[in-house]
Structure to design on (189 residues):
């Protein structure tokens, strides 16, 4: 008869111990859940370094690609001489090309025209016949791939066209007499 209270007491103590263990483990949990935050603060040290390579230089006569997808080529004249600032230009076949021609001469009027290889003088001769109202260019001529209008001293003009098939073409000023010194190769890659 004496054992029964002891059994009950033991049972109560056991229950208290279990609660204590349970509470203890609960208190340990916040610490356990706090540790995952640790690795994220370490992450930046593991990051690869930011790329620092400088952009590669673009050759002066190579067209940079602009957001609109067109190749923009800049060309000028050699002061008041009857010569372009470039002897050669290039573009990629099928690309949309914008030639931005600036005429920095103080006295001469010029144009810029892209023509089939070997036709610059013949096109210029026919342009002389077409007259200044046609920009000294033959009208609807298949040899002319693209051209600006006449550009006066200090002015600028644009020629827009699709680059033809790969090959070497000519650019020329067809103002009467200028075609003999104002020309160059236009290379399509
Ligand atoms: Cu000219």
């Amino acid at each position: 008869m004496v054992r029964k209270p002891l059994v009950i007491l033991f049972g109560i103590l056991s229950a208290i111990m279990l609660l204590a263990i349970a509470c203890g483990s609960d208190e340990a949990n916040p610490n356990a859940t706090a540790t995952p935050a640790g690795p994220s603060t370490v992450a930046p040290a593991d990051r690869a370094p930011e790329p620092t390579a400088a952009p590669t230089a673009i050759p002066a006569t190579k067209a940079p690609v602009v957001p609109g997808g067109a190749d923009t080529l800049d060309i000028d004249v050699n002061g008041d001489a009857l010569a372009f600032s470039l002897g050669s230009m290039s573009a990629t076949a099928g690309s949309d090309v914008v030639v931005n021609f600036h005429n920095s001469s103080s006295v001469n009027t010029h144009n810029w025209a892209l023509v089939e290889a070997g036709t610059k003088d013949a096109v210029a001769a026919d342009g002389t016949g077409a007259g200044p109202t046609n920009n000294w260019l033959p009208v609807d001529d298949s040899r002319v791939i693209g051209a600006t209008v006449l550009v006066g001293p200090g002015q600028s003009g644009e020629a827009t066209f699709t680059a033809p098939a790969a090959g070497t073409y000519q650019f020329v000023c067809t103002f009467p007499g200028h075609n003999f010194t104002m020309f160059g190769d236009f290379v399509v890659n």
Notes: Confidence is low (pLDDT under 50) at residues 4-45. Residues 82, 110, 173, 175, 178, 182 surround copper (II) ion (CB under 6 Å). DSSP finds three helices and eight strands in the chain.
